[in-house]
Amino acid sequence: MVKIFLINELGSAEILVQKDELQCFKINSGRFQGNTLSELGIAGFQPDVSYFVDFMSEKADRIGLLVSDEQLSPEQTFEQKLELLRRHFRRRIEARENELRELERSLDSSMQAMTDLYEELSALYDLAKLTGKKIVTFYDVDQLLREILYLVSESGLFKADGIVISTIDDSTGITSRIAGWDKESNAVIDMLPTHVVWEKMHRLVEISVNNKHSLLYPGDGVPDGLDGKIDSFVLVEPIFTTENKRLGAILVYRSYEEISEKLRNFLSVIGSQVSLIISLGNTFQEILNKKKMERELELAADIQKKLLPKKHPFVMGWDIYGKMSTARVVGGDYFDYFLDDRERNLSVIIADVSGKGISAALVMATFRGILRTVFSESVEIRTVIEKLNNTLRDDVEGEKFVTLFLIKIDLQTGEAHYIKAGHNPPLFFKSSENMISKMEGAGLFLGMFDDLMLEVINTSIGMQDALLLYTDGAIELVNQQDEEYGIDKLKLTFQESLSEIMVNSVCQVFSQIENFKGTGDWFDDVTLIGIRRSPFTIREAAFSSDYHELRSFSCNLQKELETEYPDIIQSEDCYNLRLIVDELVTNAIQHGNKKDPNRKVKITCKSDHRGIHLIVCDEGDGFNWQEEMRQAQVINIYKTRDRGMLICLNLSESFYYSKKGNEAHLALYWRKYEKNLTG
Quick one: which H or E segment has residue 277? Predict the structure, then answer.
């Protein structure tokens, strides 16, 4: 017979069950588990011997005793064995209580660790939020440092007397910023290098940053010269970028308790986060500075464009077009036109400042200002260049030089003379010979020498002859195969692209150069100016102050132009032209000749593939046309006078009167050609 006794926590015993067979019982304990004695680890079962197997129920409130049968040992009674069980139970209870107390202590320790970890993670999370939020809010690293100091001090993790963050210029090793918080004032301040805290502890920062390792004072030893000078416990954590460049350091100090290794490790994590924040702040500031610089460069580029000619000369018999591309946002190339009041002489200049970018652009602006001051149609071109050189040499002091080509053309005869001062010789296409030559000439560049040894060359530009002025960027361009564009290719491209419309020729040459360049960057600024002498048609008429003659003239002029330029003239051109002619002639009849039938109105029309020039002359006394034109630009719907002048101003390329005020000059582009200029 086998009996199983169970005893509860109060020590009372009870017979749970008694069976002849053990196989039907499942005994569970920390040491034994099974349905049979052999499975319980008890071998050689003997009925007259007692076996003790202790176990605990799932509720942890009972311990049991297995006894072989009722035949007890002579030395021990059942009560004695039960007492043994009670003592065994008490020992187990005490052991379990000890285990529970140990578990409670372990849980308390774990909870404290979790609390500390939560505080650390919370501080790191706040720093992470600062990374995104404060950078966008403050835009500068100084404010970021102050925010970080507030955050670290308010976290209370270090229980410090003070915290200092400094930043270092990695290239020079010089401390650039110092921000500090102290417990007494609970305020963040920007420290000077002479601040008492910094004077005491900056040596520790230098050692830590130079050794690229955190420094615990005095735990890591006392550096030479600091014995007795620092009366606080100090922890320094150096800060580096991901490229291992020096950013600065965080310094924590307190007087009442040594700083633990745990806080040392945590400050290392804080340092990594601060490194990220400072790096992002610096990067963000660099981006802002770059954006600001880009905006300033864009503004400079707009200003530079305004320094170039706003319009190309629209002179009958001469087709002129210039185009420039800078290697950077701004450049050192320059070109300009000077047309005299009588439209008799045209001077064209192209110049190239050494170098490129902002410095070249500044010299170009200076050059342009000097040129506009010294240039005069009454002064010989040699004198203009010599004055330019003298002034420029004093201003740039030999740091930059300028090459230029200046040509002055008699627009009626085609006679011209030019000076090449260190510049690339322009290309001259001679139509009668169907060949291209270079316009050579002696002369040094401007800005360095007193005597430029200039040579004035005379030449003649015949009908359909063409010139191409260019800067060295056009021929010195190198493509991705390391091939230079060169003068021979420029000659060939220029000759192949020649057409009646010079804007098309210049743009085609530019396109060929750009195609040669490929996807690479421009090596240098490129400027091209095309000049071509071309034929034009002159029509003249004179009639009395009779509106019928005016209408007849307008109709005939329209028909002749449509016949002469069938592929160019559009209906909008015809409408605008008739409106302008009617306004100018009506104004000449009414206000100039005062409707006097004895006074004549003369009209001269010069036209070509680009547009038309009109000259309307009356025999009146003239008027103050500048004042009238100024008033005409002030729109007043109730004002009938000056409407015609306003119409002419808006529809024309240029519109002005002679000095006396009785001869109107108006130039009008054909719409198709105008699209070529603007497209």
Answer: helix 261-307
